Amino acid sequence: MPQSILVSLDGTVLDPDAPFLCADDLAVVRGDGIFETLLIRDGWARCVSLHLQRLARSAAMLELPEPDADEWRFAIEVATEAWVEQAGESAEGLLRLVYSRGRESAPAGTEAAGGPTAFLTVGAVADRAAAARSKGVSVVTLDRGYSIDVAGDAPWQLLGAKTLSYASNMAALRHAADNGYDDVIYTSSEGAVLEGPRSTVVAVMGKTLVTPPVEIGILPGTTQVATFALAAEEGWDTETRMLRPADLLESDSVWLVSSVTLAARVTALNGHPLTASESAGEFVELVDRAVSADRP
């Protein structure tokens, strides 16, 4: 197993086993920060521009200083090169960008006082990602406990920002696993399909790809955006509209799309088997090519 890699925003490769974060960093004590997760494949990081755009969007929602895209891009290059040098070009890597509000009580006058914390890590892609790609996932729908109006009515809820506060998402995944499921699709209090804890929902209906609108309080999916852009160029119809679980059951196929797993087909929803259509392989290939379109 390759060793994890830690890189500071200035591009310095650090010892991953040496202390780095202060104990009072707000990333640790409050989850007050944001992150992005990229896939390193065949020696380069995928969809960098889309991830940096989303990082900036999340930062604005949390009122963090605007990330310097050039700084982050340089650090991504350094981290990717370090991973390839260590693990080899054929080894997939999970590259995480972390940006927090910084220390809660940094000593007055120190360089750290009042400043954000920013760093990158790279590690091996979990085995579950490869299994989800090849075998698909069984999914349970769980009520997220809020209306689709919350995103507009309560912006302080930070719906649609990729924050470090992921405890409820991890709890949902544990609940699913305890009940024999691989993953989760959240629904609103009205029963609308939202998203997965770490994925975007895409339904394939003939030659049309459908995903829920971000305005109802979900994270804009970078892989979904890239896939829909390529699909539109190649003659697919793409739609962003409300979906219900019944719509998923009637689709040709349903997918959980994400940056690292890429495309995981939903094989069962709430215990109801979902068969794969003939276009399933075509969709997987479309996603693979879409995340290759933003090569630096």
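The record above closes out task 2.4. Task 2.5 opens with a second protein, given below.
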Amino acid sequence: MDVLSEVLDVSGVRGSAGARIAAAGDWGVEWVRDRDAVVYAVTAGMAHLTVGGDASMVLMTGDIVILATGAAHALSSAPGVTIHSCDVAAADEARRLGDVLRLGEGDVQTQILGASYSHDPAGSTPVFALLPSVIHFRAHELDANLNDIVRLLGRELARPGLATHLVLDRLVDVLLVEILRTWLSTTPPTDASWWGVLRDPLLLQAVTRIHESPGRAWTTEALAREVATSKQTLTRRFATFAGTTPGEYLTRWRMTLASHRLRDTDDTLDAIATDVGYTSVYAFSRAFHRERSLPPGRYRKVSRSEQPIPTPR
């Protein structure tokens, strides 16, 4: 069981490649908040990135930056230049044709690859929301895998062929995984969140057991025995690294699995309750209502309609 793979899959994290940007002279373009996360890789030249009211940061050749919450932002040749809204239709057409989105006038000095990501609101693990809003990797911090993925993306965007959209989307998904691997291995944690599960070997073992058998009648004591530690140690490690308890983690994961079953299948409440570890529909319904602010039956109807689904607590 690969916990990160399952969480990304169940959370419905999906990526799509954007157009190549080729910029010259004085140029500036801005995007409103759109997807959950946006990634840029500078393959030539340099650019200034401005997010919100923060000071701009310089992106150099080989740098990669991820805006984990998809915040409104601008790319430009320098601070103070005129900023124009992105022509989304032109960007989409450039990607479809394997062309570039040209900015400014004159000889091209800067080239950038872009990608965006979204997630399924039925998930209770806010993958992007728990990341720093901006993660910037300098070229010298990147390993060979990340550099290879960026090169492959550039070649596929430049020479689209059969199933190009499929290839691009798969490459963008791999790009995100490599970015997360690099961030986890190079950045010390600043606070407790779900990502702490992947940083601590003991917690990773415990969570893997939960993901392998979510319907098992887990207690903190039973989970501690599975990973050869004490209840006190396991509870302390969850609090320190993940900011939660073993029981809370178990409940949230069960409710994520149940949410998908309710929305995407016609399975009975009794079957779903049993599979996620509840001995009765009543107990399951109470737990689901506490976690999702709707009873299971109502959630099923709302999730299949155009109505907004309450955010998991």
